[in-house]
Design goal:
Blueprint lengths: L9 H9 L4 H20 L6 H5 L1 E6 L4 E6 L3 H8 L19 E6 L13 E6 L10 H9 L8
Antiparallel strand pairs: 1-2, 3-4
Helix pairs in contact: 2-5
């Protein structure tokens, strides 16, 4: 049986995989930027605050390069995963310490158009069914990543 000996140039390997100028880190950063841009296009928002907080970070260690994308705002997760009947508890959302839930909605102006600002109506409800999940971040990552994506 033939024997083969392989010697890996550790300095070059680290340059390729861990250096900010290396192709692995550059590729992860490019996927992150594309994911953020796609997520900002996909997310459904009223005022744009969630959209403005979507960003990505890179974590480079000796064993892996990790790219994380998302928003620090809690309601970004609620829009992504769903709430109420569509969320993990599978129940309608009811008020805890009041008789009704109160929230504001945009009202259409002349011609049926909903304006970007102004024209809000106050709505009261005894319960709401919640928000259907909209996997805006997963869709953006799948579109940006050239590799197979498995959702856990």
């Amino acid at each position: 049986m033939a024997r083969v000996r392989v010697r890996v140039n550790q300095a070059e390997f680290r340059r390729l995989t861990q250096s900010p100028a290396g192709p692995v880190v550059r590729q992860a950063d490019q996927i992150g930027r594309r994911t953020v841009n796609g997520a900002k296009r996909n997310v459904k928002v009223d005022d744009g605050h969630l959209r403005s907080t979507i960003d990505h970070t890179l974590d480079v260690s000796a064993r892996r390069v990790t790219m994380r994308a998302g928003s620090p705002l809690a309601y970004g997760l609620y829009l992504h995963e769903g709430t109420g009947l569509y969320g993990p508890k599978r129940k309608v959302i009811r008020p805890i310490s009041a008789k009704a839930l109160r929230f504001e909605v945009k009202t259409p102006g002349p011609g049926g158009r909903v304006p970007a600002k102004g024209r809000r109506a106050v709505v009261f409800a005894k319960f709401v069914r919640g928000v259907k999940p909209d996997k805006w971040l997963v869709r953006a990552f799948r579109a940006a990543c050239p590799y197979p994506v498995v959702e856990r």
